[in-house]
Amino acid sequence: MKKAVAPKNVVEKILEAHLVEGTPGKDPELGIRIDQTLTQDATGTMAYLQFESMDVPHVRNELAVSYVDHNTVQIGFENADDHDFLASVAKKYGIVYSKAGNGICHQLHLERFGKPGKTLLGSDSHTPTGGGIGMIAIGAGGIDIAVAMAGGAFHIPAPKVVGIRLVGRMRRGVSAKDVILKVLEKYGTKGNVGKIFEYFGPGVATLDVPSRATITNMGAELGVTTSVFPSDKVTRQFLAAQGRASDWVELKADRGATYAEVFEVDLSKLEPLMAAPHSPGNIVSVKKMKGTPVNQIMIGSCTNSSYRDIRTVALYLKGKHVADDVEVGIACGSRQVVSMLAADGSLGILVKAGCRILENACGFCIGAHMSPRTGAISLRTNNRNFEGRSGTKSAQVYLVSPETAAASALTGRVENPMKNPVPAVPAPKKFPIDDSMFLYRKTARKGVKGTEIVRGPNIAQVPKGQPLPEALKAKCAIKVGDKITTDHIMPAGARLKFRSNVPEYSKFVFEPCDPKFHDKCLANVKDGFANVIVAGESYGQGSSREHAALCPMYLGVKAVVAKSIERIHRANLINFGIVPFTFDDPKAYDLVSAGDEITVPSIRAAVEGDGKAEFKVGGKTFTATASLSDRERHLLLCGGLLASLK
Ligand code: MIC
Ligand code: SF4
Description:
Strand content: 15-25%
Largest sheet: 7 strands, mixed, barrel
Helix content: 25-40%
Distance between the termini: 52 Å
Structural class: alpha/beta
Bound molecules: alpha-methylisocitric acid, iron/sulfur cluster
């Protein structure tokens, strides 16, 4: 008799097809094969410096793409140096290179490379955008991407799959951003580590691919491993319109497939929402905020920069003008989007309406363009409103849909876009295709032997970690509270240009919390102490930037002790030889103050064993545990991933 096969959801299907280590339902960590990788310039230089040191002749995964979209401001030589370095690396090792000006990595990857059923690993936390097209797409630190390009597996916590059941159809004026804000209202930005969100139900068919991608993109803010949609007729139509019909495969959950839990969203009942300062999980309704004066409106970013989104904004602004006391900036996601808007007259509408048209890049989203004025209220369609991320610490940033942004631009006040809604933008039958800014496609995977890597003075070496000592004699270099993001740890914006130069960038670690952190750490090291970071809940939220681990490592940080630590940051800490401890009793957090001497007499033995270590602070002791897999244990004992490869 044939053995009955258990029905599977989409996540289980894709993971099973890529499983190389571990058994689902048994092991705490699973190793998966990675088909595609992506990097962006701000994390890419480190990723490729680390890839170089792995000594492999060319990339071994199916497709590797290196995008330039973050540091495109080019004030000073640093950004341009990075671009040249990245281009030469791409040519040499068989990586496709997307030149600055081509667009934002996630939008471009969705348009031109994403394939349902494949795995994608990207050195950017919003890589899950690819989930909109039915990929298991995960954000990670640069060194993990380097390993995947060299053919190595990637490890994820065995996931708990949460089902988000969509029913009904959204009313006009409501859009995908409101769906993900609803999910964020329910699940918040902490406590979701290790989960994967799978969208299913009859409402899925009402969402086009860009809308699905908006939802999976901002799943990053939940702190989940990734989010995924099925691949259906809508996906097929999108791929066909991109001239990639043959990349389509159908993917759906089997009848009877189960989820660890299910949350239902009735799309027809949704209303416009916004995330209030300073967290994407701080959800309020637009109705409640209606009438609030606004100083700035920024539209774009990898969350909301598709043709559908910007065309919708143009429909709201057609024949009208933005209010006098509001500045409006628009950054499209890609050249494809820009050329479509140029062709259908939308660009003209936006210019006439008084919008500032920005480069199709990350720009404002990362505080690298149009920082708002002191104390401004800024409505933005991007995904993060952490304090200071816009480049202006006193600004109050609200995250909204393109519809809310557009309606509010007209009056300079928060407006409900359901009041005078515009018709839905139909999914284009054919997208204009121009891949001319993707270089080295012909030599992809093979590379061009003999290519010389271009290294300007901004390209520094990656520092190496040291093996974990037997005992730790350290000082608490900083004590921070809950929800500390990687933007607090390693600020971007004006500091972003030092990404390829660790000694230089390290000067800004914890700049928003304690600008003296760098000096204190170095003084402690000079006095023979290592450094320890003490933190509250959900430490390391947000970006995948491994500099938030790499630069602290450079400053002698050996351990983080927190109430809880987010997934990508925890993995980055381990990759750079910093032990991620969590307090066994969260009350122990109160026993430590900044500047205290901390000893961990047997830190190495703890990591070799069950991870539980005794910490001594003054006359007091407490315990904290680093729950580690064998692989993670090995990395920490060696002093990090790079050290372990040597
Ligand atoms: C971000 O949105 O914070 C970034 C900048 O894209 C980061 C990557 C980085 O820090 O370079 C991310 O999301 O991972
Ligand atoms: Fe770029 Fe912003 Fe998206 Fe990060 S979140 S990839 S900075 S657009």
